[in-house]
Hints:
The protein is mainly α. It contains 9 helices and no strands. The protein starts with 5 loop residues before the first helix and ends with a helix.
Amino acid sequence: MKTLTITAVFDNAVGQLDRERRRLDSLEKTSNTGSSSVLKFDHDGFSAINRALSYVVMGGVLEELMRELPAALAADVLSLGIERRHLPASLVAAMDAATFRKCGTDNVAALIERAGIVQTVLSHANDARPVVDFGDLFKLADGQTIGEKHFQALWMILGLPGDWKNDPNDALLLKEIKGKRNNVAHWTEDPVVVGRSKKPSDLRQMISRLSDLIQHFHLGVWYWLEDRKP
């Protein structure tokens, strides 16, 4: 399977959110017209479940984004021929996770690995070796539902300037998506109740804010790559 670029990965996420926004538009129009052949109770319940599904969609978009990003980032770095010295030490540390795991004991082998890490850091500014494919060397999607910490991790690993949040309430947005997505997916909360707590317009607003956050990250990573072009 062909590895995507970071632009393709981010654009795909935004496109999926746009499709969900259109689905909500259609759902709202259908709800307004109603149906004489369906009991109103059933009609309202099905509409609520459809609205609750938006949380699952948003959570799924975030999981795919974080799953695809490391390989896409590595592909772009390789295509530009970036040298290791031009990578932030935080990314090199993420790439060398296996070395860090070897430092967890108190034997001689662990001491050697610790000394090697320090030497790598001290010589990093002069390391002209080309970057190898690191797409499988660190993972953003760790099996947990995507939330604030995943965005923080990407921002810190790349050493991006400023704030990872595009809006002061983005942490609350991700917390709500994560919580409701899990409740619906694992049936710990009735999807009808979840759906009835939000109007389609409320969910469209959430999707717009999430799309803005993703595009904020896209811009940050794009500038990061531009700054490291040979």
